[in-house]
Design brief:
With about 200 residues, this protein is of the alpha+beta class. It is built from nine helices and four strands. It has one domain: Glutaredoxin (3-Layer(aba) Sandwich), CATH 3.40.30. It has a four-stranded mixed beta sheet, sandwiched between helices. It is globular, with a radius of gyration of 17 Å.
């Protein structure tokens, strides 16, 4: 690896090792060989990256590694995994990988949210495997509609597809998360020094 001093991340090698054993979306699908993939595929058919989101993602200039702790059985993963896949397909600088939560308890433990084991959790890593940000569970638009529908604890099972407008809102939130990460990378003094000589 390249010398990155004085920058450091104590979990750099930890994340790198899991990223290297994680799978591309297509390989994850192939190796899972699960009946749950019909739900993933159904959501793939409902999701498209268009307009400003498509242009923004295609304009990204910095390499980005994205490690997603996932559960092929999980309704949230079945909805959000295809969103991440669509975003990554738009720009070859995004290396998106999935890893099954139940098979990787140490990683799952590291990525707890509010003390609980959650999926999906995306860890955004620089090209040098420094953690930029992690995001897990659900976006704000999901929580808003959940509160509106039930005003209580609620979990989408994936049996009934969300409205297209709801999926579009969530996809936009993912695109904004990626955009924020790209800005962090493009303004990084360390990476500017490396690339803008």
């Amino acid at each position: 690896m390249i010398d990155i001093s004085p920058y450091k991340d104590l979990r750099r090698e930890f994340y790198k090792s899991y990223f290297e054993k994680a799978l591309s979306y297509d390989k994850y699908r192939e190796e899972s060989n699960s009946p749950y993939w019909t739900k993933w595929e159904r959501h793939e058919g409902l999701i498209s990256l268009t307009g400003n989101n498509k242009q923004t993602v295609s304009d990204f200039k910095r390499k980005l590694n994205v490690l997603v702790l996932s559960g092929v059985w999980c309704g949230d993963c079945q909805r959000q995994g295809p969103m991440l896949y669509r975003i990554a397909k738009e720009n070859p600088l995004i290396d998106l990988r999935f890893i099954e939560s139940k098979s990787n308890p140490e990683l799952q433990d590291e990525l707890r949210i509010n003390g609980a084991e959650k999926v999906p959790v995306a860890v955004f890593l620089s090209e040098d495997f420094l953690e930029i940000q992690r995001f897990g569970d659900r976006h704000l638009s999901y929580y808003r509609r959940t509160v509106e529908k039930s005003n209580a604890a609620y979990c989408e099972t994936g049996i009934i597809d969300p409205e297209i407008s709801e999926l579009d809102s969530e996809l936009t939130e993912w695109c904004e998360t990626f955009e924020r990460i790209q800005h962090i990378l493009s303004l990084s003094p360390f990476l500017k020094k490396r690339y803008e000589k």
